[in-house]
Amino acid sequence: MPNGLTLQPGDDSSSKDIEEILRSYKTIAVVGLSPKESRDSHKVARYLLEQGYEIVPVNPGQKEILGKPCFQSLLDIPFQVDVANLFLGPARIPSAVDQAIQIGVHAIWMQIGVVDKESAQKARDAGIPVVMDRCIMQEHRKRIITLSAP
User: Fold this and answer.
1) How far is CA 45 from CA 32, 33, 63, 137, in A?
2) Cβ atoms 6, 22 nearer than 8 A
């Protein structure tokens, strides 16, 4: 956990905890990233790239999105990712959370409209903070987060 992160498994996400996630973690796997510029997942990923985050597209139907190689699943990413940002329908959340736990992400972020309390609790039980039903771009904009130095 980064220094100062107070989010404990089972806690709700406070403003301070969200800021710490956004400030401390730099590599974000966007699961369900669409290649269509009009889709929210694409807009959010582009925004995060512009803010200096490393984006890792995860979409089994694509080879590349936003100039980045696209992976079939979280399990196919050959390097560590910090955050799994989920743009998925309810039926696909449990599998994505299981994969996120398996690869050892530092946080799971479920976008607006994405809520799965059972999967969130499973992640929290594994020691992984979870943010649900919030847009990572909107939260970043509210706080004007600057990435920490390495």
Assistant:
1) 11, 8, 16, 8
2) no
**CA-wise closest residue to 100 among 134, 126, 118:** 126
CA distance 11 to 17: 10
Strands 68-69, 64-65: pairing is antiparallel
What's the confidence (pLDDT) of residue 8? 40
Report the pLDDT averaged over residues 91-102. 98
Phi, psi of 21 (to 5 degrees): -60, -50
CA dihedral angle for residue 141, residue 73, residue 62, residue 34, rounded to 10 degrees: -30
Which position has the token pair 């190689």? 69
Residue 11 has pLDDT above 80, yes or no: no
Q: Report the share of the chain in percent with pLDDT over 90.
A: 77
Query: Using one digit for the tens of pLDDT, what is the confidence trace for 15-41?
Result: 778 988 999 999 999 999 999 999 999
122, 129 Cβ separation under 8 angstroms = no
For residue 128 the two structure tokens come to 């992984």
d(CA 71, CA 56): 8
Three-state secondary-structure class, residue 70? coil
